Amino acid sequence: EIVSGEVKFSVFMHRQFFTVDCLLADHCEVSPGPSSTFSCGDTVRCHFNVEEGYFIENLIIDGDTIPGADYYVFENLHADHTVSVVVGHYTYEIVTSCGPNGSVTPATLIAEYGETVEVNFTPAPCYQVDSVWIDGEYVGDDSAYTLGYIHASHSIHATFKMRNVRVKVLVEDSLYGTATNLGEHLLSCGSAFSTSIFPADCS
């Protein structure tokens, strides 16, 4: 059809908007929050803040996994996007060991950040704990040691020594007899000791 007069056209245009969905994760705060809307062409920076003892292991951007970071930027926004955060928990190796004549429990283990681990040292019969060492530093001779609020790897080592026994031989009244090896004796546990008793006449 041939236009022979004045014609007016009305065009209605609007800016496109897109959604960036930062999915919530345990032990991690994200911003902007879920289902935030932005204008086409915007630059959107997503921030991730994990709790103490945790770290960002990976980011999943629209289904694709990339190495972890504490932020991600969408430049010149032209589509909807989804961001997921994979959070890891820091772990540390606790190496336990001991010398001969005893044992240590638990065996070498992996502890999580902030965990408390009690290590016990059990001497063999006739032995006792001689020394306990944490990362090469002497910390005493107790039969147990507690590693509290773990935030680093550690090594713990114990040694054992022979336990001594005191033996005392006394004669209350020498009028009635005597005995050999009188007095107090310090002996190694398990060693032999003897005394002979000699009663007086008529005793």
Give me a quick take on this structure.
The protein has 203 residues and is mainly β. It has strands at 17-22, 28-31, 36-39, 44-50, 54-61, 64-67, 71-74, 81-89, 91-98, 102-105, 109-112, 117-123, 127-134, 137-140, 144-147, 154-162, 164-169, 177-179, 183-188, 197-199.
- Poorly predicted runs of 5 or more residues: none
What portion of residues is helical?
A: under 10%
**Going across the major beta sheet, what is the strand order?**
3-1-8-5-6
Major sheet details: 5 strands, mixed
Order of helices and strands: EEEEEEEEEEEEEEEEEEEE
**Separate helix tally:** 0
Could you tell me the mean pLDDT?
87
Count of extended strands? 20
User: Cα-atom Rg, whole angstroms?
Assistant: 39 Å
Sum up the overall morphology in one term: rod-shaped
Task: State the end-to-end distance.
Answer: 150 Å
The proportion of strand residues reads over 45%
The assigned structural class equals mainly beta
What does this molecule look like?
The protein is mainly β and 203 residues long. It has strands at residues 17-22, 28-31, 36-39, 44-50, 54-61, 64-67, 71-74, 81-89, 91-98, 102-105, 109-112, 117-123, 127-134, 137-140, 144-147, 154-162, 164-169, 177-179, 183-188, 197-199. The strands form 6 sheets. A 5-stranded mixed β-sheet has the order 3-1-8-5-6, with no helix packed on it. Strands 11-9-16-13-14 form a 5-stranded mixed β-sheet, with no helix packed on it. The model has no long low-confidence stretch (mean pLDDT 87).
